[in-house]
């Protein structure tokens, strides 16, 4: 594998050269020369990655290019930092001083940079000369033999699954039966069955067991098993199909098959299958292009034929194949199944093949590390079977090294590495970056996206935002089973994901070799940082600084026990080129004074730190894109915030324990000049005081924030009027609107929220009916109203086409809810809480055929009685799978499940 990290870096440097022409004018000749060399370096790295250079000499060559690219980045960033320092001085005297006294210093500095660039250029040009002198090849030809061997090894291993004995398998019987039921049902239409899961999850083994079943074989007239390589040739696949069909029926294969043309091969298959019910397995499919090429040969004769494909990519599994389809997602083995499989391999040399008591705890840790991945359990179990008791702990502590260096774990490395190698360049950087997070860490979608953007990993695509491009990257990694979704929102959009432990170990190994990033967990003494990114993960002691930190572009700190961690309120001077500083939960109460001099900083995360204020000089961070001060003690922003002209995300609210009360969240006071931030996409949460002029100015500013998609405004107290009617034309891309405070009337601009998906109105106490203003919003998926309306009736007359979640909390006078037929056709969840006058079930509830959950709390017992068996409305709730009521209602509602409700959430944590 080549070293992909330098490719994006070179692209970034070339962009700086093009965009900062005026700043770098003093070294223009040297830059033009090195720019051409960098473009050639970039092309070289693309070739190296495509051809999978594996020889030691070639790897050294690629590493040299990477290191030189890093050197160029250091020189350019140092130069830009110097120019920033000169340009940041203000005032007439300062300008005169710079033009006279400091001119010699600038000339000297430019000469210094020029000399460094010339030296780098000479070193770049010397690389091919040195390689030629020592006989190192130039990545000529196609894939190396080592790469070919690896591909053949993976293919052979897949096909060997056809011959694994049944008693060697664990947890497969029910999955096998589900596949067989699909394959042998009475439906005569052609069917495609996709089995999807990450590499090593047992897809091929499962399909092989179903395919080899005598019952299945008797059900079909002919069968074929084809292992699809990533670089398949369609004619070769056709030849394999023909051979498989004929040999399976003990028939003679056409003698001239190897000389047949594409058309002749296609004709043979179509004629052969014309009257036959067939089953075809396409194993390890990487692209939907395969189906488009092969489907013409596998025509639908309505004879009950079946096609099974295995894939590690969700977009392949969920592709529209034009025929009936089923998807089987491979789930990890349960813990007891994983233990059984691991034990069968690891303890075979031990007495009675049982785990020795002294190894049991460590063995369980190793099993959990595999996270139910069969390939890893088998390979790791086989490795441990050859180790004595004293070696087990060594393997566990150095699993990263063993994964990439021990031959017995080669199966795991090879299969996982295939997924990584198949990634486009930019996605490789994004994937490796995820390894900076601790093991089993829930990575928030928005946090990850903002970090990628700050690092410069996300390319500019005309017509869409960087955030949308980055989300596409994330979805691609999820589709490829490189990341696993742990938490989705109500629309199915991922909110948090995690890396499989072994994927993370592989990523860390690659990252350390490429000097992309390194993780410090306190188990070893760190004296020098040899990477561009550092993640410190420790639960005790001080965070120590060491040499090499001047090269860092990202510094992230993760703590699990803030009480035992101490962090200095100063940063080393070498941090001046940081792009990312993530100190979430770090126990610091003062922002280190050095932070405001980090001119390169794009991302500053202070979430959940005890910091009480930001300095006025925060405005020096002209490149800052994300400022996260949520759940800090900062009550007001300084005026200097208005100078952050590139700020895209401003996140600053604090939760309380008041739940549904007005003060469930506190905002942060913002200066009037916040209107200067034209690039804001997230504004959350501004606390407003009842100054009419200020409110109008803010509304006028919000109208100019054309990219804003998240708006959270809050009155200073529950009696303060939140007058936002001055906002006549809201930003077109608003997706979430949260308004907390009294509203005299419904804002008329609600009609215009064509993109909004989530709306929260809290303590609005409207006398005017809100529903007519929002019922036709085309994308509204979640509506939460908390003490938002003081009327007695609510009537949902039309619309709400995409609404899936409706929460009505604290309606003190509400005594009737009417839902007309056809309204809210996709509603899945309805919550009624603290509606003390609502004695009857909402009229028309029976029309909500997709309703899955009805949650009732603090409603009259008369309402609950009405839906019990024998109650007047019992028949109207029979279609609802779950009715959730507090435990003080003692009688069970027949036909639904009864749950104890601990609390009802309004706005969930982690929505930013």
Automatic annotation (TrEMBL):
It comes from Pyrus ussuriensis x Pyrus communis. GO terms for molecular function: ADP binding. Keywords: Nucleotide-binding, Plant defense, Repeat. Residues 551-858 form the Disease resistance R13L4/SHOC-2-like LRR domain. Signal peptide: none annotated. PANTHER family: DISEASE RESISTANCE PROTEIN RP, DISEASE RESISTANCE PROTEIN RPM1. Residues 436-507 form the Disease resistance protein winged helix domain. The keyword Repeat applies. Pfam families: LRR_14, NB-ARC, Rx_N, WHD_DRP. GO terms for biological process: defense response to other organism. Residues 173-348 form the NB-ARC domain. It comes from the Eukaryota. Gene3D superfamilies: 1.20.5.4130, Helical domain of apoptotic protease-activating factors (1.10.8.430), P-loop containing nucleotide triphosphate hydrolases (3.40.50.300), Ribonuclease Inhibitor (3.80.10.10), Winged helix-like DNA-binding domain superfamily/Winged helix DNA-binding domain (1.10.10.10). CDD domains: RX-CC_like. SUPFAM superfamilies: L domain-like, P-loop containing nucleoside triphosphate hydrolases. Residues 9-91 form the Disease resistance N-terminal domain. This is Disease resistance protein RPM1-like.
